[in-house]
Amino acid sequence: MKKLTTTLLALLSAVTLMAQGIAFEPEGTTLEQASALAKAQKKLIFLDCYTQWCGPCKKMARDVFPMAEVGSFMNPKFVSIKIDMESAYGAPLAKKLQITAYPTFIIFNADAQEIGRFLGGSPADEFMKKVEEKSKDNSSSQLQARWQSGDRDPQFLQEYLNTLNASYKGEEADLVAEAILEGKEATFANDSTLRMIFMRSINNPFAKSFVYTVKNPAALKAAIGDMPVEMKIKNVLETYHRQLINEHDGTASLDQQKFDQFVALLSEMGIKEADHYRLITLITLSEKQKNFAAYMKYIKEYLANPNLDADDMQLARWARPFSSPTDNSAEKAEMKALLQQRLDDLRAGKRQPMTRVGNMRLSVPTDVLISKVIDAMDGKMPNQ
User: What average pLDDT score do residues 63-74 get?
Assistant: First the structure.
């Protein structure tokens, strides 16, 4: 009788577990701990990579993960864990796993070797379908092992690059793309496949093919046009400069070594807007550190540089830290003076107000916008 009761309790416990949705391990469970559990239970590992600010992450946690059908699908197969990728444990893990968007869901085997991943929120049926697909695909870890062993067969490299791109593993895709283009820096523009690899997968400004192309863009421009090449160069540099600031537990710091190397590289490549990337990094860092004396110093240096031009929208965005009408700081006064000077220039015809940003039409021209920003800094209501 006692044995029967124990069995019934176990069955009831299992049914309750299934009915409560995904049975995530307690918050704080690490990937290493999940691996030990997965080995003991002969399961795979499901990792939900989330952040506190991610709307789709919250929607999945609220609407999809608690569903009984999702729990019934997941719990027999997976040890499931959730990790805040901006936490003390999560931040270095995010870097190691090359997480660049949220939510990211990753399937590992019991040894914590990645099998597959997918991004973004979705309805329950689509979510379970993606989990099923990525659980069966174990090619990623096998291909990674071949790469790490030194295999550089051209066909293998192409296959591995395709897998990495499908998994949104940009940093490793960069390395593989560089290996494919190694020694072909001066000739890849003549090959459509290699051009595509460069345009899609080279995102490291230090890559030999990128440096060569910046210095010698004519061949690639002749093949695909000026604008795509110029946009590619700009996008790589813009993306990289954002990676120079490390954020952890509410603090921000500059990776000084990478910053110095990047500034030197910009000079080597002859980038005309080199000071843009240097100053915009320092402006962003100062804002995150709430060091507004430095913030204004770099903004004024940017505006004084004859090779740079901050448009009206950028100038208005720089005023955001001083939006409170109760802020009476010297830095706010400096920012307001810069906005007023820009407004005077617009009204005097020295500059033309912006009415569009890219393909987007602004609801009001930027002279009106800047005037409203100044009023808001003074505590005036619209139309006051």
Answer: 94
Q: Where on the phi/psi map is residue 224: left (φ > 0), alpha (ψ -120 to 50), or beta?
A: alpha
First to last CA, the chain: 81
Question: Is 57 assigned a catalytic role?
Answer: yes
- Using an 8 Å Cβ cutoff, are 318 and 370 in contact? no
Out of 18, 45, 47, 57, pick the active-site residue: 57
Rounded Cα distance between 279 and 302, Å, is 7
Residue in the structure block whose two tokens are 């962003």: 284
Distance separating alpha carbons of residues 72 and 66, to the nearest angstrom: 10
Domains with residue ranges and CATH for the chain: 2-137 (3.40.30.10), 140-221 (no CATH), 243-309 (no CATH), 314-384 (no CATH)
Q: Has 54 been annotated as catalytic?
A: yes
Residue found by looking up tokens 């006051």 in the block: 384
- pLDDT level of residue 2 (50, 70, 90 thresholds): very low
What's the gap between Cα 117 and its chain centre? 16
- Under DSSP, is residue 266 helix (H, G, I), strand (E, B) or coil? helix
* Whether pTM exceeds 0.85: no
Of 38, 54, 181, 214, the active-site residue reads 54
Q: How far is CA 106 from CA 43, 94, 118, 136, 327, in A?
A: 14, 11, 7, 12, 45
